[in-house]
Amino acid sequence: MPEITYREALKRALREEMQRDPTVVIWGEDVVAYAGGGAYGVTAGLAKEFPGRVRDTPIAEEAIVGVGLGAAMGGLRPVCEIMTVNFTLVAWDQIVNHVAKQSHMFNGQIKVPMVIRTPNGHGRTAATHSQNFDAWFASIPSLKVVAPATPYDAKGLLKTAIRDDDPVIFLEHLQLYSTRGEVPDEEYLIPIGEADYKRRGKDLSIITWGRMTIESLKAARILAEEGIDVEIVDLRTLRPLDVPTILESVRKTNRAIVVEEGWRTGGLGAEIAATIQEQAFNYLDAPVARVAGLEVPMPYARNLERATIPFAEDVVEAARAMMRNEY
Amino acid sequence: MEPTTEWLLERYRLMVLIRQFELRAIEERQRGLIPGFIHPYVGQEACAVGACAALTREDVITSTHRGHGHLIAKGGDVRLMMAELAARKTGYCAGKGGSLHMTDFDLGILGANGIVAGGIPMAVGAALAFKMQDQRRPGGTRVALAFFGDGATNQGAFHEALNLAGVWKLPAIFFCENNLYGEGTPQHKQGAITQLSARAAAYGMPGVTVDGNDVVAVYQATAEAVARARRGEGPSFIEALTYRFRGHYEGDPQVYRSREEVAAWQARDPIPRLRALLSARGVREEQIAALEREVEQQIEAAVQFARESPLADPQEALIGVYGDTHGGAVF
Ligand SMILES: Cc1ncc(C[n+]2csc(CCOP(=O)(O)OP(=O)(O)O)c2C)c(N)n1
Ligand SMILES: [Mg+2]
Fold first, then answer.
1. What is the pLDDT of residues A166-221, one digit of tens each?
2. DSSP code per residue over A262-300
3. Chain A residues touching residue B35 (CB < 8 angstroms)
4. Cβ–ligand 1 contact at B45 (below 6 Å)
5. Cα–Cα distance between A150 and A173 in angstroms, integer?
6. Which residues of B fall within a CB distance of 8 Å from A38?
7. Which of A55, A89, A300 to mutate to test the interface with B (most CBs of B within 10 A)?
């Protein structure tokens, strides 16, 4: 199978869906004008291929999202790009009060088929530009939240997200755009709400998503050399959570570590750990452990930044400690 | 009021200091001393220097993602700035802030801001604090000036803040550096009108457009707005037409604008313009050159200082999560 980047996989998904459905449209800041089309190059070239359907907006995130909602109600399928997740904050009223609630609150009179794509995660640019809001989005009923780790998943999930009649928050990790992976030329879709085993193993389950899936895979290779055989459950969708797969894995390995890049308090790891102890308590040989980001605004200095977010080594250490029954 | 030659020389020194600082920071970033990205202020020096010349140390400003020039114009120490860019413990924010968040509150700067338009409401709040506390202050109330770009005028925060300043008649100045682009999107594609000062009318305040590459014009417009604010007559809006000579950030391939356009603006470079004015006033070439050399030495010393400074200890990431571990001042 050919290898392409995460960025290219996303672009192909956009292109295929725009070819398939003339109501699919794109807008956001600099999605046409900028260097490669969007701050991270995902939409490069699409404006030429689909005249009038890819638009640059002013720097006005609240309008980008709110207009997306209105357009969705008006018959389009907007894919709104917010330059980075940090700037979604300006649009949270639209996202939480309007986009998410519209369908349920009006008792299903209207559907909201829109996607909000945004790069999430640490960006090496300090406190206001290096954040993870995945847990926040995942706590909001009526949103679907997707966070792919590989080019294959990114393509299949974005296509599904665009076809979905509910609003989907599509979180791309800032550090993954240039990573490569196999993506078939033939069309495929990946259902929202299904986790994926990125590695099978018997000793403990690592439950994770996004960049931390990649770090966990690195950790698994190191741990394998030490005789620790980990299973990696890549959630791929953060809402709705694939609880059956999480439980299936934990019931087999009897140990679980939830790995996330964002802040620990109120993180998705807390929700997953609670769910495991509610529904698989008797299967556990150890308390569910969490690897998460330090609870500080992200500092600018590389060495300070390194100290605040988890990498493979942190996962390795947590797994070793768990296998030594240290908790 | 015609500015004195001495006054002009000091503006020249500051503008050259900003220019040299930025060019050296770009170089040091390529050499690896500076790990993060920067948004250079090169080309816009007359805006920060002209506007800040109309303020006193007690007046405050808010800055932006393109904030190095504002900090220097308000009296910033280039050693501490370079150290911050190099992520050193001795930097303005001990390596926590970086280019986007580098500031000195002692100089009356309420933060550089990584979020477009994020600083504008803060300036309005500071202006309210001044209005409420400075009623008997000799010389009139302190003022708050918000720097922001053309792109920021399309954010909700801009409109909400200006309206409030207008309603409450606050001693606030809205200083828009219209460099014709927000990242890669030209101003005329972002705004339904191109003369941004016209927006002031919607918020009941005067708006003027000035040549942002003319430090004297910028100073005069700002001084007028300051005088109004001090007299209790409310806020003003200044649009300064300018241009950034470098990319949006250092490394930007700039596919959205032509070389000819950049060259046309470079012909209006605010620094040679002021230099020519100084010569016309009879300032000798040697004096100007000596001043430029001094600035160069200052920048060299700043780079040395940054290089020799230690990195922060990773444990320091945890310090100051709450204000009680840091202290902190009120203006
Ligand atoms: C709320 C928000 N949206 C988007 C960005 C990304 N961004 C950083 S600078 C910038 C352009 C700002 O344009 P302008 O206000 O004209 O300032 P200039 O860069 O031209 O100095 C953008 C879109 C941001 N920092 N904050
Ligand atoms: Mg601009």
1. 999 999 999 999 999 999 999 999 999 999 999 999 999 999 999 999 999 999 99
2. EESTT-HHHHHHHHHHHHHGGG-SSPPEEEEE-SSPPPS
3. 124, 301-302
4. no
5. 10
6. none
7. A300
Q: At what angle do helices A151-163 and A6-20 cross, to 10 degrees?
A: 30
Catalytic residue among B244, B246, B273, B275: B244
Specify whether the CB–CB gap between B55 and B102 falls below 8 A.
Answer: no
**A170, containing H or E segment:** strand A168-173
Residue from A28, A206, A35 nearest A119 by CA: A28
Question: How many Å lie between the centroid of ligand 2 and the Cα of residue B153?
Answer: 10
Q: Is A189 exposed, middle or buried (0-12, 13-18, 19+ CB in 10 A)?
A: middle
For residue A297, the chain B residue with the least C-alpha distance is B321
Residue A265: burial class (beta carbons within 10 Å; 0-12, 13-18, 19+): exposed
Distance B186 CA to ligand 2 centre (A): 8
Q: Does any ligand 1 atom lie closer than 6 A to the CB of residue B115?
A: yes
pLDDT, one tens digit per residue, over B7-52 is: 999 999 999 999 999 999 999 999 999 999 999 999 999 999 999 9
A119: left (phi over 0), alpha (psi -120 to 50) or beta: beta
- CB of B271 within 8 A of CB of B208? no
Domains of chain A, with CATH numbers? 3-182 (3.40.50.970), 196-323 (3.40.50.920)
Q: How many A from CA of A85 to the centre of ligand 2?
A: 21
Q: Which one of B90, B190, B196 would you mutate to disrupt binding with A, by most A Cβ within 10 Å of its Cβ? A: B190
| Closest ligand by atom to B179 CA | 2
Note whether A251 and A201 are within 8 A (CB): no
User: What would the two tokens of residue B256 be?
Assistant: 């959205």
How far from B247 is each of A45, A55, B187, B217, CA to CA, in Å?
21, 22, 15, 26
pLDDT for position B204: 97
Residue B155 CA: nearest ligand 1 atom is 1
Measured between beta carbons, the chain A residues lying within 8 angstroms of B154 are 58-60
Q: Which helix (H) or strand (E) is A259 found in, with range? A: strand A256-263
**The amino acid at B308:** E
Distance A137 CA to ligand 1 centre (A): 24
Here the ipTM equals: 0.94
Is ligand 1 within 6 A of the CB of residue B303? no
By the 8 A CB rule, do B230 and B261 touch? no
How far, in Å, CA of B77 to CA of B16, rounded? 14
CB of B171 shorter than 6 A to ligand 1 = no
A17 vs chain B: nearest CA distance in angstroms? 26
DSSP one-letter string for B186-255: EHHHH-S-S-GGGGGGGGTS-EEEEETT-HHHHHHHHHHHHHHHHTT---EEEEEE---SS-SSTT---T
Sign of CA dihedral B269, B212, A61, A15: negative
Give helix A268-280 / helix A243-253 axis angle, nearest 10°. Answer: 60
CB atoms within 10 A of CB A303: 16
Q: Checking phi first, is residue A285 left (phi over 0); if not, alpha (psi -120 to 50) or beta?
A: alpha
Omega into A240 within 30° of 0, i.e. cis? yes
Q: What is the distance of C-alpha A117 from the center of its chain?
A: 10
